[in-house]
Amino acid sequence: MILAIVVAWTSVSAISAPPCFHFEPAVTSISGILVSKTYPGPPNYEDIKKGDQPETGWYLKLAEPICLVGTLGDELNSEDVAGVSAVQLVLTHNEYVTHARLVGKRVMATGTFFRAHTGHHHTPVLLTVTSLGVSAK
Predict the structure, then answer these.
(1) Whole domain around residue 104: which residue ranges?
(2) How far apart are CA 99 and CA 64, in angstroms?
């Protein structure tokens, strides 16, 4: 009887566990709703109305939280991160212009994850994007 309960609990846990990914250099694809958000930037990162520069970026709002597995020996990405429901996208190829039509739509982003480490990072983890397009889901 106890074995049956343990097997049933383990099965439920496996079904409800969030997907886990790895930090850079692993390449990952995730999908979600592409949103544009503005946060206060320098000098104080507190309030745009009080003189902080606005920083507008693109974020992937995920349907379900994900987790990331830390990498031993990697000073920046050594710790696991759980419950990630939004990911800031790091865009390096003029995507703000070429992909503006995708804001508000479900997209697939491919790239590498890294942990937030500056005041410009507004989610616990970020994705350096190598490709961005409409998601089939």
Answers:
(1) 18-134
(2) 24
